[in-house]
Amino acid sequence: MTDAADGVEVQLATADDRCFLGQMLEEAAGWDPQRPRLTPAQVLADPQLAHYVHGWGRPEDLGVIAEVGGRPVGAVWIRRFPADDPGYGFVAEDVPELSIAVLAGWRGRGVGSRLLETVAAAAASRGVGAISLSVETTNPARALYASHGFREVSRAAGALTMLRDVGA
Ligand SMILES: CC(C)(COP(=O)(O)OP(=O)(O)OC[C@H]1O[C@@H](n2cnc3c(N)ncnc32)[C@H](O)[C@@H]1OP(=O)(O)O)[C@@H](O)C(=O)NCCC(=O)NCCS
Predict the structure, then answer these.
(1) pLDDT at residue 14 is higher than 50
(2) How far is ligand 1, taken at its centre, from the CA of residue 131, in Å?
(3) DSSP code per residue over 34-81
(4) How far apart are CA 59 and CA 159, in angstroms?
(5) How many structural domains compose the chain?
(6) Is the pLDDT assigned to residue 41 strictly greater than 70?
(7) Which pLDDT score, from 0 to 100, does residue 168 have?
(8) pLDDT digit string, tens, across residues 144-165
C-alpha cells in the first residue's frame, strides 16, 4: 500500500520496523519538551511503555510507516492488550490501542493525519471495530485526534482516553 502524494509514502509496518517503532515510542513518550527526555534504554526498561513495541510483529499487530525518499519519518501502530496488562488507553481486550509519532522535522505537514486515516482504513479492513488511545490533556495531539473522529470516553490523572469507531 503506497500513497506518493506530497512525496510521502505510507506502507504497512513489518517485523523489520520494530526498531523504528521503538524510536517513535520514545518520541511519543517524550512529546513534552519541558520534561526530561527518556533515553531509549529507559523507555524499553519501563514495562508500561515497552509493551507497546515488545515482540512487534504478532499476527494482530497493525502499523503504518510514513517514508520520504525511502527513509521513515513517522509511524502509527495499533496493538491489543489483555486486561491484566493494559495500555494507558485500555478500553477492552478487543479494542486495539493506537500509538503515533512523527520525526520533529516533519511535524505539522499532514503526515500524522495521513497515518491516522491509513491505519483506520487498514484496521477496518481487518474487521477491527474501534481504536482507543491515551493522550495527556496538555498534548496538542489531542486536537488532531478529535479532528479525526476520536472522542473522549474517560479522563484520569491528566490524560484522556479517546475512542474512534472504524468498523462498518
Ligand atoms: C502528534 C503528531 C504525531 C502529529 O503528526 P503531524 O504530522 O504533526 O500531524 P499533522 O501535520 O497531520 O497535523 C498537525 C496537527 O497535529 C497537532 N500537533 C500536535 N503536536 C504537534 C507538533 N509538535 N507540531 C505540529 N502539530 C502538532 C496539531 O493539532 C496540529 O494541528 P494544527 O496544524 O491545526 O495546529 C506529531 O506532532 C508528533 O509526533 N508529536 C510528538 C509525539 C506525540 O505527541 N505523539 C502522540 C502521543 S499521544
Answers:
(1) yes
(2) 18
(3) TSPPPPHHHHHH-HHHHTTTTT---TT-EEEEEEETTEEEEEEEEE--
(4) 29
(5) 1
(6) yes
(7) 66
(8) 999 999 999 999 999 999 999 9
CATH number, domain containing residue 150:
3.40.630.30
What pTM did the predictor assign?
A: 0.95
| pLDDT at position 1 over 70 | no
**To the nearest whole number, what is the mean pLDDT of the chain?**
95
> Higher pLDDT residue, 117 or 5?
117
CA 115 / ligand 1 centre spacing (Å): 11
For residue range 131-146, list pLDDT tens digits in order: 999 999 999 999 999 9
Contact in structure between 115 and 62 (CB atoms under 8 Å): no
Q: What is the domain extent for residue 105?
A: 5-165
CB 144 near ligand 1, within 6 Å? yes
Q: Which among 24, 35, 99, 144 is the best mutation to test ligand 1's pocket, defined by most ligand atoms within 8 Å of the CB?
A: 144
Could you tell me if 123 and 96 are in contact, meaning their C-beta atoms sit under 8 angstroms apart?
yes
